[in-house]
Specification:
alpha/beta; 7-stranded parallel beta sheet; two-stranded antiparallel sheet; 11 strands; about 40% helix; globular
Length: about 300
């Protein structure tokens, strides 16, 4: 099992950090303890993390500002990845921001808050996949224009079906796909196969199950996951992350947390070596129902 993988043309460590949980409850407003959130980010770099996933609509503005305050000026090897396609209203609701103008504004806002001239990768986060009017071409065209202008390096796509990713591949060079996938939610197997075929990075969101529906606790309650975790003397979450790393060398992880302790546990999952017996047992994990909405990622 390799420790690094390609994100487009960039070599990164396979365990990165998803910054979403650094915002307040519901990914809205500031955290209770901003200094603790910044400590998590600083510890992530101390542990060698070189890939952080964020978005302007986390907060909104809050998480990007925390990243800037904690880490700027950024190390040369740090890859900052963001996503556009959504916005928040005053109550914290998640709303689409899918027009070319909104996508451009989203990229510009990320650049401003992070204080960057160019972001390493921008994911188009789809809110629906109705392409009857050719919206996907317009959306990816807007990101391609920004790429030519030097404001982003790579383009990814998030929350997309196999057919949508195939369409995207015909329109622009795609560096990665972000979709829901975990040991207890394997609905993305066909999409992962497509990423392997085209040598794309596959970045699962909710790798421990949905943070909004008690994912880690559900993992720990699964008999198969619990049995393998006990055998290795590690947590159920570490087993779930290790399973993803073993599943495909194209998988890059961005587990999120607001706790330094959990961050350290997540990184340690990279040292868990699963054997054939473990993998066979984990194939018996009980699939969890898909959340009603996965807008919040």
């Amino acid at each position: 099992m390799t420790n690094t993988a390609l994100l487009g043309d960039k070599t990164v460590k396979r365990i990165g950090f998803g910054a979403m949980q650094l915002a307040g409850p519901g990914v809205f407003g500031p955290p209770k303890d901003p200094e603790a959130a910044k400590a998590v980010l600083k510890r992530a770099l101390e542990l060698g993390i070189d890939h952080i996933d964020t978005s302007q609509f986390y907060g909104p503005d809050v998480v990007n500002q925390l990243i800037h305050d904690a880490l700027y000026p950024y190390p040369d090897n740090l890859r900052l990845v963001t996503k556009v396609g959504a916005r928040r209203d005053d109550s914290g609701a998640w709303l689409p921001a899918q027009t070319p103008a909104e996508l451009r504004a989203g990229v510009e806002d990320n650049l401003c808050t992070l204080e960057l001239e160019r972001v390493d990768l921008v994911n188009l986060r789809l809110m629906d996949e109705d392409d009857s009017e050719g919206r996907l071409a317009e959306q990816l065209g807007a990101l391609s224009d920004l790429q030519r202008e030097g404001k982003l390096d790579l383009i990814g796509i998030s929350n997309a079906s196999v057919e949508t990713v195939k369409k995207a591949l015909d329109l622009v060079p795609v560096a990665c796909v972000q979709n829901e996938f975990s040991v207890v939610n394997r609905g993305g197997e066909a999409l992962l196969d497509l990423c392997e075929e085209h040598k794309l990075a596959f970045v699962p969101f909710f790798p421990l199950g949905s943070a909004f529906t008690g994912g880690p606790a559900q993992l720990a309650a699964d008999p198969a996951v619990a049995e393998v975790a006990t055998r290795h003397g590690v947590s159920a979450s570490q087993i779930a992350l290790a399973w993803l790393l073993h599943r495909s060398e194209r998988i890059l992880l961005i587990p999120g947390t607001s706790s330094v302790k959990h961050l350290e546990e997540n990184i340690a999952a990279g040292e868990v070596a699963l054997d054939a017996q473990d993998l066979a047992r984990l194939d018996q994990a009980t699939p969890l129902p898909r959340p009603l909405s996965v807008a919040e990622h």
